[in-house]
Amino acid sequence: MIEAPWIETQVITSSEPASIKDINNDIERELAFYKQALEGAIEGRKNVITSGVPFSRPDDYFAEMIKSDVHMTRIRQKLVNEEQSIKASEEARRLRELKKFGKKVQVEKIQERQKKKKEDLEKIKVMKKKRKGIEDTALDDDFEIALEQAAADDRSRKRQNTGKNGKRVSKDTRYGFGGKKRHAKSNTADSSGDLSQFDSTNGKSGWKASMANKKRKFTKKRPGKAKRKSARNKK
Question: Where is there biased composition of kind Basic residues (predicted)?
Answer without folding.
Answer: 157-168, 213-235
